[in-house]
Amino acid sequence: MSFDSSRSKRSRGSNPSSSDRTNPSKQKKPRNRTLGPAWGANSISSVSSKSSSKRSPFANFGSYMEEKNRKLREQFDTDASTSSVGGGSSSGKGIFSGVSIFVDGFTVPSNQELRGYMLKHGGRFENYFSKSRVTHIICSNLPDSKVKNLRAFSRGLPVVKPTWVLDSVAADRLLSWIPYQLEQLVSETRAQQKLSSFFALKNISSIVNPELPMNIHGKIEEEGPLSKNDGTVVKFLSEVGNITKHGDLLGEDSSYQGQESSTEVRNSESSPGGESSVKESHQSSPNKAPTLDSNFCTDNKNAKESLDTTCSGDSIMRHSTLGDPNFIENYFKSSRLHFIGTWRNRYRKRFSSKMNGVKYGSCNDNMLLNSSESVILHVDMDCFFVSVVIRNSPELYDKPVAVCHSDNPKGTAEISSANYPARDYGVRAGMFVRDAKAHCPHLVIVPYNFEAYEVVADQFYAILHKHCNKVQAVSCDEAFLDVTFLEGGDPEKLASTIRQEIADTTGCTASAGIAGNLLVARLATRIAKPNGQCFIPSEKVDDYLKDLLIKALPGIGPAIQEKLKSLDVHNCGQLRMIPREDLQRDFGPKLGNMLWNSSRGIDNRMVSVVQVKKRRKGADEPMKYMGCGNCENISRSMTILKATDNANILQRIVRQLFGYLNIDVKEVRGIGLQISKLDDTDMSKQGHEDNKLDLWLASASDNSREQFGTVSSSQGNTNGDVSLSNARCKSILVNQEFRDTVHNSGRCVDAPGSSFQPHINQPSGARITEEPTILPPICSIDVEVLKSLPPEIISEINDMYSGRLTEFLEVNKMKDDKGSVSDCTTSYSEVKSNGSKAIHDLKDYSTRNSVTRNKGKLPFSSPVVSQNGSPTKDKGNSLQVLQTASTSFLRSSDFPVTSMGMVKSDLMPVSLSQVDASILQQLPEELKVDLLDLLPPHRPKDTAAGSSGISVHNGSENINPETSVDQLDELSCNLWMGDPPKWVEKFEVSNCTVLKSLVKSYYQSERNGPFSTILQFALSSLPHFTDLKVEGLEEDLFSLCELFKQYVQLKIDSDIEEIYICFRLLKRSTIKSEFLLEVYNVVHPFLQASMNENYGGNLQLYDGLS
DNA sequence: ATCCTCCCCTAC
DNA sequence: TAAGGTAGGGGAGGAT
Ligand SMILES: Nc1ccn([C@H]2C[C@H](O)[C@@H](COP(=O)(O)OP(=O)(O)OP(=O)(O)O)O2)c(=O)n1
Ligand SMILES: [Mg+2]
Ligand SMILES: [Mg+2]
């Protein structure tokens, strides 16, 4: 009721909720008190009424509030009947007939006066907000957080100033509320400017248009000193070299070269001599400078240089690349959030061997091996950034210390981490230093040392991995360990061992929490801190959570906290009183479920490696022919320092990002690429003719192989077994749309602050449709299928069954002790074509182009460029590679055709056909090698221009390609000419079962449909194991071979994919027909010869059957 | 219904 | 001065 969405839908356009983004103060403002109990209490009433009112009166908030509301309404009705003037304009009813107001906050006139007006003029007045009853919210002024809550919970309702009521009364008629809307909401409505229009304008002028609406323009200005305008682009273009450096920084080195480029980091064993210098002026309290494992930023050479180059005075000059060409680089080097944000990639790189192949589907094992209880250990470093820096300064241990860029007591630099003495004063991470100093005037501020954090994090994880092979990294100082394997062993002992090793190795302390699930383990760590450990047995969970503030639950941030607050829910105990369905209605199915579970300490997630997931063994073809199945999207982005349109640079970045993905190329189902935060190009400074971005991009849809031959050779492509630069592949996925974007944008270069991000879609197994009410009985679940699912999916399903899945698996495990994993044979399927999220979710303002699926043709898309008019600070260029992948874990046994999605190597040929040559050309070497590994080993390995060496795959000896070509010449390719094509009439008169079947299939299938479709129908209708003699004569054999060969010739330039499908169908059919086996033996070598000739490699037809 | 797009939210 | 990045989950609502 309270959050009842039955009312008019709010349109995003008319009431945009994007102010967070555009509001520069964002969450930095002190949080205002928000919607009072009036909002929440009623909501509780409504949400609880359904299921809880049966119990004793006032058993919960709900029944109490419901009763209260009822009485209030009755009272209002009584009052109304005595005070109503009844009159008012035409209707004979009051002018406010049908109007029901809720007064929010302080108003003039007061809410009681407004209530009086309502009484008099036929309206209603609600003491508590209810979306089903309230028609207008009356409000004079709203703090930010209330505005947000209004957006969240009262969509579609007018929020109107009280003068609307007064004026209406004065006018004796109901005035339109529109002129009385609250400015805050109205102005935001007007403020919302479509990005497209922004760029449309930009396109015309090709510069930042001074005529842009103030809001947009204003936002840009509001970015303050860091913002840059189009004028800054000029400098970026000529200095592309720096980008490479930056790339190396992020990618190749195992050390983090943050603001301190040369500081040597000691571990605890090293002697305290030779400390990094400390800038004394930064230390407010100690007389002598403590020994810090860090330097201040101002000691940084780079920073100094940047100051030297500073032009005097103007802050924009100093705080932008205008005055300091290294500004952005230095900015990122000093950014803690950048450090944290990019840490995971570095971790993956370093510890990938530890996660090697280990599917932390630990859940699978756990569920099968252990009873429903797992044991989770959570380890988190104590005040990490501070600890590391002061680890060799014992004199600071008991003093309040925080890490911050600035010690300025009036400054707005943010506290990154505060030690526990400082926390006693109320100092917290994220605070402005001035507030921290206000809390604690003698707070010692120490600088960051990112390199040391990196080293300590490595040590930390080395220790964790040593003790456990199921480690889920949360962040650089925090991880979950699944220690269920300990069985009888003592997890607490392991925890203390690990903590001791961490302390010995790093000189910093860590705390640990142990519990039956991730959620509670994390909460336990919080109790344990600092330098302690805590075990929460499951029977204590309930008690502990009861009074825990909801904000303490991971996943509940300020926004959800506010929403819950408006429901008068502050702690977990209160949250538990709201039924699950109500929470799901108010917060959505997933979030609602999470809230319900969390408040009870329930968490069915399992320890797993985020991302490096692989398709399950049992995963099989998508049911849909050529379907992509369900996709999982992965993306990596990189912000580069300076604008560039140099394709070489972009390609280098793409490679690097691909490397980060650490993904089995065979799992890849498509690639997308997004470049954002673009800037205008200075024509005179564009990259070399050959390397310009727009050419690269344009070629994606142009089959411009010459250009990419250039690119390729310039990069020293030495293993070009398959020279993609020579491949005349059809660019399937891209697309006019893409080109349009490029051109509409004017001449764009990635502006500083752009980032580059590959989005990957890779198989994730099928998702079970969210259908909470109709779950199949748990006993009907195929255990083998279940086991083949990725852990998160199991977790999700487990969730849906409220954890009963675990027991179910346990029971099954006991039944089948051998644990042999048979082939997945089930039946139950859901195949979604889902290529969307891969591309869509790029949290900037960029215009997005989708990699579209074209009748199931998927794999690689050409680059997609999108523009970005981000009103936030531009600090780098952003490029994103979007990739789409697909799979399904299901197969349909009666579906005669495999699609390309599933079996490992299936993808490769598809990629070949669908990849635009230019894109594939850009793949990282490892990726290419992977691709080429799918091909027979004897292809040439040494050609820079891969097409130069052609090797014929001689898997079948009974045909000579030359012969074949001669014959082909004779027939002059005419089997495929005409409509219907020649072969139809030719085969029509044949007695051959197969040929006749083809003809029949031709007529049954869509006109102009692909041969693969015809073939599929024809072959699926064939009986098994027909005798060769019955099936066809020599002549028929020849005819059908010709048909295939000619089809190869016809399509090899444009659609390898189609060829691939046909040949796979053919290959599959060979098990049921000797005739077709003969055909296959003849045409397959021909196919490979042609492939070699055209692409310098073979087409792998592996389908799992051979 | 489901997909697609555009966000919002959260965590470190 | 100060360096408010990055990645993923997920909801709302329009399009289909
Ligand atoms: N708003 C934040 C939160 C965290 N961090 C950085 C500094 C922290 O040291 C590190 C780890 O975050 P934690 O949440 O683990 O916080 P601490 O380790 O500092 O303290 P605790 O002892 O509570 O874990 O991330 C940050 O820069 N800004
Ligand atoms: Mg910590
Ligand atoms: Mg942490």
UniProtKB/TrEMBL annotation:
It is found in: Nucleus. Coiled coil: none annotated. Residues 43-56 have a biased composition (Low complexity). This is DNA repair protein REV1. Residues 1-62, 248-299, 851-877, 940-961 are annotated as: Disordered. Binds 2 magnesium ions. GO terms for molecular function: damaged DNA binding; deoxycytidyl transferase activity; DNA-directed DNA polymerase activity; metal ion binding. Pfam families: BRCT (PF00533), IMS (PF00817), IMS_C (PF11799), IMS_HHH_1 (PF21999).
